[in-house]
Design brief:
mainly alpha; about 450 residues; Amino acid/polyamine transporter I; APC_superfamily; Amino acid/polyamine/organocation transporter, APC superfamily; membrane; about 0% strand; transmembrane helix
Length: about 450
């Protein structure tokens, strides 16, 4: 019987995680964050990085305890309860189901800025159609191609930073190193927190490496270290890039906040560089959207196969292509909401699900180690009670700082999940079906 080979090293797993996060997204959402924070984007990323590190620490601890697929769903189900595990899975479903929509919306916004004669709706429909078709056929991008595309992103980011530095030094009106982007005259904690709540969108996927446990050497040691390194490196990239971009463009006035980096790229590098930047960003968004839709469809298929969602509709694969076609089509239909939503609301809505899942994973650490395993010495109280409690409170605080529409949509999604759980369990009288993500 064929088995997955444990060939991945720590470096390979970290590269996968960074690529999954799509680092160039820091440019894709820069205008939105600049508008929300009134020009304090690096400060928002700094707060988001600290909050995510607490949660990443909890993910690392749970990955060590349960080195298997399923992430937040598995951790909460096994350490607290099956019903609360379902709610964690429902929160993850929100992320997976709506993430492709946000990715394609960001890409469409930038293409519309480059080609204003073409309606943004057409770009959205093109993204949906092409990626859905590719995923239905079942094309898998090779690791070498993914690495190459990752290199393109990092080179574009590096070029953007270099041109920002050149622009700032050439302008001569401000120093290269200053606290202004962090503690400017218009800064305030509510504004920074509001920005941090959106900035956490850039970190989505840091836990995705938990799915590589069966292919990683010494997974109980490697996966937790990788989760922390990915979060730390991602945060450093986001803070550094946004710092230099903020210096080059301290103003918060843009033709469109949804595609502000396009305007900045032209200002610092001219028409040639803005074309290179656009290619890099669209390639990043396209490949990210392709992976996000594929992942979402597999999650929906796993839920259908295990009876959590209607099995006849979502628990089957295409006889011709061997892919979950109905699940892929559902992702495409959901993505049509991009025709009615803006980038800010769509990313914030997704973050609601992420913060809920993150908070539950922090709670799972307390449930598994502090309560279940009775590890309550001075060191354990710090590691398994205090730190995850801080992480959970940080996640809930960030959730409360999302925009009002995102909170309403998120609470609506949560209410639907609770109602569905009541139906699934016969009024909580029986356990919900257990989902097996290992084959998804």
């Amino acid at each position: 019987m064929a088995r997955l080979q444990r060939t991945l090293s720590l470096g390979s797993v970290v590269l996968f995680g960074i690529a999954y996060m799509t680092p160039i997204i820091v440019l894709g959402t820069f205008g939105i964050l600049a508008d929300v924070t009134q020009g304090q984007v690096p400060a928002a990323y700094l707060v988001a990085s600290v909050a995510m590190l607490f949660t990443a620490l909890s993910y690392a601890r749970m990955a060590r305890a349960f080195p298997q697929a399923g992430s937040a769903y598995t951790y909460v189900r096994k350490s607290i309860s099956a019903k609360l595990g379902f709610i964690a899975g429902w929160a993850i479903l929100l992320d997976y189901l709506f993430l492709p929509m946000a990715i394609w919306l960001i890409g469409a916004s930038y293409l519309h800025s480059a080609f204003p004669a073409v309606p943004q709706a057409l770009w959205v429909l093109a993204f949906i159609g092409v990626t859905t078709l590719i995923n239905v056929v079942g094309l898998k991008l090779a690791n070498g191609i993914n690495s190459l595309l990752m290199l393109v992103q990092l080179l574009v980011l590096a070029a953007f930073v270099v041109l920002c530095v050149h622009y700032v030094l050439g302008d001569g009106s401000q120093p290269l190193f200053t606290l202004e982007p962090f503690l400017g005259a218009g800064s305030s904690l509510p504004l920074v927190m509001g920005g941090a709540a959106i900035a956490c969108y850039s970190f989505l996927g840091f836990d995705a490496v938990s799915t590589l446990s069966e292919e990683t050497r010494d997974p109980q040691r490697t996966i937790p270290r990788a989760i922390l390194l990915i979060t730390l490196l991602g945060g450093l990239i986001f803070i550094a890039v946004s710092y230099f971009v903020q210096l080059a463009h301290p103003s918060i006035q843009f033709e469109s906040v949804d595609s502000a980096a396009y305007e900045i790229a032209r200002n610092i590098g001219g028409d040639v560089f803005v074309t290179i930047f656009l290619i890099g960003l669209i390639v990043g968004q396209f490949t990210s959207g392709l992976s996000a839709q594929a992942s979402a469809s597999r999650l929906i298929y796993a839920m259908g196969r295990d009876g959590v969602l209607p099995k006849g509709l979502f628990g089957t694969l295409s006889a011709r292509f061997g892919t979950p076609v109905n699940s892929l089509l559902l992702c495409g239909v959901v993505a049509l909401l991009a025709l009615k939503l803006d980038v800010t609301t769509s990313t914030s809505f997704i973050n609601f699900g992420a913060f809920l899942a993150f908070a539950l994973v922090n709670l799972a650490v307390i449930g598994h180690y502090f309560i279940g395993a009775s590890q309550r010495g001075p060191k354990e109280i710090f590691s398994y009670l205090l730190l995850p409690l801080i992480g959970m409170l940080a996640d809930l605080w960030l959730m409360a700082n999302l925009d009002r529409m995102a909170i309403i949509l998120g609470l609506t999604w949560l209410a639907i999940g609770v109602i569905y759980l009541v139906k699934l369990t016969g009024g909580f009288r029986r356990q919900p079906p257990e989902m097996d993500f290992s084959e998804a």
